[in-house]
């Protein structure tokens, strides 16, 4: 009996992350196909240089046709996780996009509508109607 698509894909991605991770990305725990914990380090020369962020990736059997959900200390507003998701994206791509987003920051501050979002947010970030304020990142 063959493995489902999502388990084949995640097996390959995990092997690639373990053998050739993007700079500043490390695996903390990835013992199953439901949840992975990864650590991302801020890029050198940026506002977040050497700061570390722990992220939890949650997968459904619809992965890679459906994006993973990602958790840290809040929901992540990143277009490739929602409207611009494509099955060619990988966990490594998402990590690099998060590093890029962090690298473009010029101030450590919450978004202007953060308090309102927290009050009304769904438990799943995929149920949020995101408004992407900066399409250049």
UniProtKB/TrEMBL annotation:
InterPro entries membership: Ub_conjugating_enzyme, UBC, UBQ-conjugating_enzyme/RWD
PROSITE patterns xref list: UBC_2 (PS50127)
Domain spans labelled UBC core: 5-137
Top-rank taxon, per record: Eukaryota
Cited CDD domains: UBCc_UBE2W
Transmembrane segments: none
UniProt keyword list: Ubl conjugation pathway
Keyword Cytoplasm: no
Record-linked Pfam families: UQ_con
Listed name of the protein: UBC core domain-containing protein
